Each structure stands twice: as C-alpha cells, then as structure tokens.
Automatic annotation (TrEMBL):
Reaction equation(s) it catalyzes: XMP + L-glutamine + ATP + H2O = GMP + L-glutamate + AMP + diphosphate + 2 H(+)
Origin: domain of life: Bacteria
EC code(s) of this entry: 6.3.5.2
Key words of the record: ATP-binding, Glutamine amidotransferase, GMP biosynthesis, Ligase, Nucleotide-binding, Purine biosynthesis
Record-given protein name: GMP synthase [glutamine-hydrolyzing]
Subunit structure: Homodimer.
Residues the record lists as binding ATP: 29-35
Residues of the whole record sequence present: 215 to 533 of 533
A GO CC annotation given for this chain: cytosol
Residues annotated as domain GMPS ATP-PPase: 2-194
Organism: Rubellimicrobium mesophilum DSM 19309
Membrane-spanning intervals of the chain: none
Amino acid sequence: DWTMAGYREEATRKIREQVGNSKVICGLSGGVDSSVAAVLIHEAIGDQLTCVFVDHGLLRKGEAEQVVSMFRDHYNIPLIHADESERFLTALEGLDDPEAKRKTIGRLFIDVFQEHAREVGGAEFLAQGTLYPDVIESVSFSGGPSVTIKSHHNVGGLPEKMGLKLVEPLRELFKDEVRDLGRELGLPESFIRRHPFPGPGLAIRCPGAITREKLAILREADAVYIDQIRRHGLYDEIWQAFAAILPMRTVGVMGDGRTYDYALALRAVTSVDGMTADYYPFTHEFLSETATRIINEVRGVNRVFYDCTSKPPGTIELE
Ligand code: XMP
C-alpha cells in the first residue's frame, strides 16, 4: 500500500534515472512547493543540483534571509542568491495594470534566471515544483469556461528557450501531499505550514502603481498582521492571509493632528486548494486590536479595512 516514505524512495529513484550525471538547476520561490522539490532532488542527486533564488524586491519582511539560511546553512544545498530588486522595481515603475505587472515580472524573471543559470555551467535540466492542481488550473478553471483569469507567473517558456528538460517530481501531488512529503524529508514544520505566496509577490498586493515607499509600508503592516494571527493561534486555521496597500490616502486624526495616509486591506481566507475560498470570520475584538496595532506601529497607514469577499466572486489576491 501507498506511503509517503515509499513515494520518496520511488521519486528519488526516478529522478536519478531521469537525470543521470547531468546538472540540474531549480528556481526557488521560498514557497513550500519549490522547497520540497529542491530538497527531494538534492537527496537524489546531491550537488548536481544548484538552486537559484531570485529576490525581485517584492518579498515579505525577512523572507530572503529565511530562505537563504534554510538552504545554505540548514541543508547545505548550493544556492545562488540573486538580489535583483533594483532591476525589477525599476522595470515596474509606472505600471498599474495587473497583467502588465505579471508579464513584466515573468519576463524579467526569465532573463535574470537565465543569466544566473549560466553560472552553473552546462545544466541540462530545470526543476520545478509543479503540482497536480497547477497542471489542471493552467488548462481551465473548474466550473467555468476555459479562460485565463490571471496569467499565473511561473517559469513557463523558460525550458524551451534555454534548451532545458524539465524535472517535476511533484506533478502527481496535491498541496497537502506535498506538505506530507516535506515532513517526510524533515523540513521544519514552521516552513511546511507557511501560507502560499504568489510568484509576483507584493506587486499584486499593491493595486495601482508600485512604489518603494508603498512596498516598505506594506512589508511592515503585513508583518504586524501575521504576528497578530500567530499570537491568537489562528495561523494554521487560515489558508492564506496578507495585507494589501490600497491606491488611496484617506484623512484621519492622531493626537491633535490631521493625518493623510494610506489605507490597507486585510485578507484572510480558508480554502482547500485555492480554487474557491471563504473569507475568515475573525472576531470584532481581533479586528479592532489588529487595526489599532497596525496604525500605531506602522508609519504611513491610518485606516484599515477587512476584506469579506469570498472566491468566487472575488479572487484571493487583489489583482
Ligand atoms: P487567486 O488570486 O487567483 O489566487 O484567487 C489563487 C492562489 O494562487 C496564488 N496566485 C498566484 N501564484 N503567481 C503565483 O505563483 C500568480 O500570478 C498568482 N496569482 C495568484 C494566490 O496567492 C492564491 O494562493
């Protein structure tokens, strides 16, 4: 009968068989999927694998440090940490259309990844943490016609362009199975339970024009919000939670002064696979405590909204 330990053994055997003595590169996003894929492949072929982590300047607070330290220090997996934030943020300047943002990020990601992959020298394979639902979702959205609602950012098109073959050891798995496999491989529980984070990162949580100032505010506010969720023991009950910074300033009052600062939207949903989702029913106490903390602790925010839209009709991200 089927066990995760059996899957692990079978998967490593298949990877060795597919790859032989060739080199493999793997793009890390900091998410669970690409991390599990990388650790599994490293188990199979050791230092024939090199990971490339592209920091596009759209990560959350502390995220780059966490990913780099886990892979380099904890797992000792060869890792190229490419800090390309200036390049991405400059390219995104002035863009406010959601699909234009995704396309710019996707295109630049390919360029940057390709440049750094050359450092590896002679890689024949590209590893991706593609899951079974990704395979389906790219074909059609369930219950609807076959239309693309959002062009999900992945490294599509890259393998052909670089003449690389794909290694996708998670292609048959669902998210919860990937988490089990991660546990089986000894990834820390805190990492395995991390909420999903989209490839385009904070760009799609900053509707309207992206500025460095807004990103800095958003990073701080999101960290306070997630800290609140953890302190209240709610993190594992929620499928995904994040703050978004809205493209507007509103008037407020603080002490005896008038403020004119950004408004934030908080989002939290429960879901099984991200295809449909319900907004999370926080208590009023939680919401008011969180709004107060954010406004007190984060400069530049004077108003907080809670998004109570489910999916459908809303999507999980704001863009
Ligand atoms: P939506 O907003 O489409 O999100 O309801 C469903 C899930 O997908 C993630 N998401 C993305 N992931 N690139 C990604 O890698 C994207 O462009 C993208 N857009 C949404 C989202 O975070 C949620 O988990």
